[in-house]
Amino acid sequence: MSLEELKRKRELIDKKERTILSNMDMIIQENCRVAEVAHNAERIINDLDKEFEKRTGLDGLDVTFLLFATALQCARQYLLSNKKGRFTKDSEGSKPLKKIVPKQYHEILLGSVPYDAFRKSNNLQDINTGVSGVNHRYTVLGHDPLLGWFFGPLNILTDSVTKNNLVLESYRVINSKTIDKPVDIMTLVDEGYNQISCDYKLIIVAVIKQALHLGSDAFTKMGLPVPIINNVSPNLTSTLMKNGIDTYSISRGATLSVLINSIIAAIHGLFYNDEIYENKDIYEVKTRKILSYSNIIATTSNVIYVAMNAVAGNESALSKLDVGGMVVTIYRLVNDYEFIRKVKEEFVFGSFNKLIQGEEYNF
Predict the structure, then answer these.
(1) Per-residue pLDDT, 103
(2) What's the mean per-residue pLDDT of the chain?
(3) How many C-beta atoms surround the C-beta of residue 92 within 10 A?
């Protein structure tokens, strides 16, 4: 082997040696860096937590959206109270349908239902049925927005009325106007089953009639009781309904609240800038904070307003209570909190993991 070849081999060995030493030094430095990160893990995570709050904090534009959303929610509460937007009479809800439905059908589908009856026949003069024109909306199950879908058609098919109590106290009804003799609930179930067995179309007609009747009653001044609450406490239901707090007002309030939230979220989303925010989830946290804060402020102000007026002796104050908006606020608090928690967790621990991993070795 010549001297030149020996020199080349020596240079190659020296180069490999330097590379190995450099790589070892790189590994040692990386281990020291990882150890340093691990040693200061708590401080780093706290700093990342603060960085997340800083990035998702509300700036001037966000505060403008917050104030606008809150103003819309408050305006909805006070301009459209629970007692507004209702029919004067029960029959008004059926008038538009009578114009487009043939007479032979609307007489069947839009006729009186037996569970609207409250006058007693001569056979019941000494018996207190507990049903009257004032309370029949929440004392009979035909008007219940949930259980009414079973008991309503059953009463329609069997000309009966069933009360909202544990024993399901039931009575026969004459000409859909007069409450007559008591009848066992199982007898009514058997009669209804027999009628459906003979003609299945009867149940279809009865359900349609039930839907039309509940749809008409929902928009009247008396309204329909709140499900579940009505079955647990009819007295509470009575108080709520006297103040316009029923299925319709709650549903309407919740729907309008959700609509306002959707509009604000859509408009705020138009201001997303991918050069400022690393992903849309970070920006959506700001959007959700705006919606949650505006809903909390609106609901809190509404509750305080109603409470102060009630204490001052204003008996109609409860009619201003925005129960639908309150339901939406509670939903937003739970849902938005979970979303923000997940995004924050991904940001903090994702960034921490990147610090631990560092850059790839360039061996």
Answers:
(1) 41
(2) 81
(3) 13
CA atoms within 13 A on the CB side of 265: 17
- Are residues 343 and 289 in contact, defined by beta-carbon separation less than 8 angstroms? no
Distance between CA 315 and CA 154 in Å, rounded?
38
Residue 7 has pLDDT above 90, yes or no: no
Instruction: Record the pTM.
Output: 0.69
At 355, list the tokens: 């610090």
Candidates 234, 217, 342; CA nearest to 288 is: 342
Shared domain check, 277 and 187: no
Q: Which pLDDT score is estimated for 291?
A: 93
One domain for residues 317 and 177: no
In a domain, 142, yes or no: yes
Most confident of 71-75, 85-89, 110-114: 71-75
Out of 193, 211, 241, a domain closes at 241
Tally of domains within the chain = 3
Residue where the block lists tokens 């307003």:
305
Contact 80, 264 (CB under 8 A): no
- What token pair was written down for 185? 């609930």
Range of the domain at 17: 3-39
